[in-house]
Design goal:
Blueprint lengths: L1 H14 L5 E6 L6 H14 L4 E5 L6 H7 L3 E2 L3 E5 L2 E5 L2 H7 L3 E4 L15 H10 L3 E7 L7 H8 L9 H5 L3 E4 L4 H9 L6 H9 L4 H27 L9 E6 L6 H15 L3 E7 L10 H16 L3 E6 L3 H11 L2 E7 L16 H8 L4 E5 L32 H4 L2 H4 L5 E4 L5 H16 L4 H14 E2 L6 E2 L2 E4 L6 E7 L14 E8 L5 H11 L2 H9 L3 H13 L10
Helix pairs in contact: 2-3, 5-20, 13-14, 17-18, 20-21
């Protein structure tokens, strides 16, 4: 069985032109993830594959150190941090060495400040983008969306976390599982931690109840991924189903992170797009609220983007009405909102005196989920299924929609004539006008000024220029029969848009008035999260090169992974 799984990844390596990612997933330290990763490294080496150890954490375990012998090890990079010398993975050395496969331990690790990337998973994404295959390890509790669930069930705040999409985009996931009794026995024998730490570990994190809960979470996660893949391959509806998920954010809402993690897992269960929407009232304009509140909003929206949401900031006086109008346009079936703290008397007046009540009373055909984030409200769970590792050659991300989505390709909606590259800093209005004109010249959409005016009006209501360096301006057009996309690449950013990360990519999406644009938005969002594609677009010198990068990404095995066997 183990040999068969290794052969599956071996076949992927030999037929792929881009880096493949394989993850050994476990529920706790000591289950054998690193051991199996090294074993596979030896098997691949015997098959003639060029394998190196990019980063290995032995934690003074003699068994692991012994197993690593015979495999080439890339030297680490040394950095000074607060007067202490810290060793980190040398990603540049790996890229120069260019092995076929790199073995990289502990995917969720946070790098020391001064490193090329803040997190190791970002290093791995760069390595994959260079065409190098990676085999790595991680524990389930490091998934961002599980933070609150783990904290409540195990009583541990996990500091090292990574976006769910990193695991979701893996080409192969192997569940490394042992019984909790065997794991505790390994701990007692000193195979996980030194003997002097054993008693403390058994009395705390390694309690049987904690291990069982983490083991269950791992099985649930894998089961949900298999269920998601099954629905991807069987769903035939070519339209965007009206059960998109949205979460409502507030500048003062308690525990917005919990709302986002719940929404992320719910969207993953439905295999639908999901949106994080912040409605900015006149009293919350940037010129009115303090810097601390602005930072809170920015951090919350950044986390939403990392979890896979499409983020929107709307302007409106009536929050509930704005939310419902958004839900109608984007075909939202589930609205998630937090239960607010009691308001002082002066705030119990006007349009926003009871937002939750207004949502419930006025929503039609929409499920409103109210979480009591102050006291640890309901948590998202998924059904458990019996699984085997080789059943998961590929996983779809929580924001990837059903199979018909893969038939709607950016390359079919774009053309080189609708790709514009700016090698200088440019203003937002100029970007949008130029892209609209490019579509008009290439497709003959009609009244350019009217369309540009509608687009600017829409941007005035809800900015689509986000903190993560990507923009998705979109509008529905009367009389249009076929959707169109234009792409803007800004080498020096958009000068009059205040974001922490300069806007590099702008997807202008024009859709027929009678057709929801959620599919194309989801497709563009997925493209914007591909590290390989982003790097290819950054290096493109002409519209034709950018078009070729998109086409290659869509037609490669990396973008369209094999179905389950």
């Amino acid at each position: 069985m183990v040999e068969d799984r290794a052969n599956v990844f071996l076949r992927m390596i030999r037929r792929s032109q881009r880096g493949r990612l394989k993850v050994y997933l476990g529920y706790c330290a000591g289950v054998g993830k690193t051991y199996q990763m090294l074993q596979e490294g030896h098997r691949l080496k015997e098959e003639g594959i060029d394998v190196v150890i990019g980063l290995l954490e032995t934690h003074d375990r003699a068994e692991i150190a012994k197993l690593a012998m015979g495999l080439e090890v890339t030297l680490r990079r040394r950095l000074e941090y607060h007067g202490v010398t810290v060793e980190e993975m040398d990603i540049n050395a790996i890229l120069v060495r260019r092995p076929q496969v790199a073995l990289i331990d502990e995917l969720a690790h946070t790098n020391v400040p001064g490193s090329r990337n803040p997190k190791r998973y970002q290093d791995v994404q760069d390595i994959l983008a260079a065409g190098i295959h990676v085999i790595t390890t991680m524990n389930v509790q490091h998934l961002e969306s599980l933070y609150n669930i783990v904290e409540k069930s195990v009583g541990v705040k996990v500091r090292e976390r990574l976006p769910d999409s990193v695991l979701a985009e893996a080409d192969q996931i192997v569940d490394v599982d042992v019984s909790t009794e065997d794991l505790q026995k390994r701990l007692g024998e000193g195979k996980i931690y030194p003997k002097e730490r054993t008693e403390t570990a058994l009395a705390n994190f390694f309690k049987a109840s904690n291990l069982e809960k983490l083991r269950e979470l791992t099985l649930r996660e894998l089961a949900s991924q298999i269920d998601l893949r099954r629905r991807e391959t069987s769903e035939k509806d070519s339209g965007s189903a009206p059960d998109q998920v949205m979460v409502c954010l507030s500048s003062l809402g308690p525990n917005s992170e919990k709302l986002l993690r719940y929404a992320s897992r719910l969207a993953g269960k439905f295999n639908r797009n999901w949106y994080a929407v912040y409605v900015q009232t006149p009293s919350e304009e940037a010129t009115v609220i303090d810097l601390q509140a602005q930072r809170f909003i920015s951090d919350t929206l950044t986390l939403a983007k990392q979890l896979g949401a499409m983020v929107f900031t709307y302007k409106g006086e009536d929050i509930a009405d704005t939310i419902l109008r958004f839900a109608e346009e984007y075909r939202v079936g589930h609205i998630i909102i937090g239960k607010s703290d009691p308001k002082p008397l002066w705030k119990r007046l006007g349009k926003n005196k009871d937002i939750v009540k207004n949502l419930i009373n006025n929503a039609r055909g929409i499920t409103v989920v109210v979480l009591d984030t102050r006291k640890g409200g309901p948590l998202a769970t998924r059904p458990t299924l019996e699984i085997s590792e080789e059943m998961i050659p590929t996983i779809a991300s929580s924001q990837t929609v059903s199979p018909p989505m893969t038939k709607l390709l950016l390359s079919r909606l774009l053309s080189p004539q609708r790709i514009v590259i700016w090698n200088y800093s440019v203003q937002k209005e100029s970007v949008l006008r130029t892209l609209v004109e490019a579509v008009e010249k290439d497709s003959g959409i009609g009244n350019t000024e009217a369309l540009f005016s509608d687009l600017m009006k829409r941007e005035g209501q809800s900015s689509t220029f986000f903190n993560e360096g990507v923009a998705f301006p979109h509008v529905r057009v009367d009389g249009m029969t076929t959707p169109r996309v234009a792409l803007g690449l800004t080498r020096q950013g958009v000068s009059d848009v205040s974001t922490e990360k300069p806007i590099e990519i702008v997807f202008l999406i024009l859709s027929p008035a009678q057709t929801p644009n959620t599919q194309i938005l989801g497709l563009a969002s997925r493209a914007a999260q591909s590290r390989y594609l982003l790097q290819s677009l950054r290096s493109a010198q002409t519209p034709q090169e950018a078009m070729r990068a998109i086409y290659d990404w869509e037609t490669s095995d990396y973008s369209n992974p094999p179905k389950m066997s």
